[in-house]
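Follow-up to my earlier ticket, as requested here are the two runs.
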Amino acid sequence: MGSLNPFSGGGGDFGVTPTQKLTANTPAFNLKTFQTQPGRFKTELTRLGSAAQTAQDERFPRILGDTDALRETLTPGFSDLREASTRAIGNARNKAIGNLRQTLTQRRVSGSSFGEQALASVERDFAEAESAAQAQSFLAELDANMQVLAFETAQVNDALNREFAELGIAAGQTAQLAQLNTQSSQFVAQMKAQEASSRGSGIGSLLGTGLGFALGGPLGGALGGSIGGSLGGGASAVGGSQGGFVPSGDRGFFSGLGTSISGAFR
């Protein structure tokens, strides 16, 4: 019996060839997904060096390097900010002490208890000012470091998010190719089941019709209908109603079959 497949003639089962490869191309990316073995897929994502990609590749390491250099200038306790404020207070102290000594000398009280107390008082005031400035600079250094860290973290996270986005694109195309292959396999399996069912039904109908044609009359219709129906027929009734109309090429087969069956009823 010839194939009952209405889709035959194409490549693959029922003319269905599973998709082996998907590609996508943009000015920035080349995305290719292909099947390495049944049920296994691989995706290759190639960055094509767009202006944005080139700028990111060149500047991202430099940004991180500049950020590290900036952080070093803001190290709590050793920053340029602290050094500047300490230097300013020291210069003011030296100037104030120099003016006071000159004044004490002019008044001829230099070295006296009064003069020494005045100098000690000025020294104490500037020491307190320096301590306050160092405490403030520590808070400023800490705040500046936190801002630098936040900026650096944002840069790293942006780079990671770009990579995650690229991974999502690749995973999406991989899933799409897998889904297309699954759908193709399901379609082929469904059509094979339908073909097998159609073959079984066709054999039963053909045998029932042959018996009806060979025997003719009511007996042929009844016997053909019984056998044809049990084998998936329904077409045997046609054989009974048509009597002995049998194509010449099949007369020998149906004649012998009819003789055998009629002999059984004698």
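Run two:
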Amino acid sequence: MDGIYFLVLLVFGALTGALLALCAALGANLPTGRGGVDDTAATSKHAADDRGL
């Protein structure tokens, strides 16, 4: 009976590790998307300077 609990613990650990690896892989791409928002604000400011506003 103790062997079943050990197998369940191993499966739970493997699933947790896979979920952490997936979150780390997806989270590595987040900062590049936020940089684009800041770049558009900077280009609109320069465009207003070009128009003499």
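The only thing I checked on run two: The helical segments are 2-27, 30-50. Let me know what else you need.
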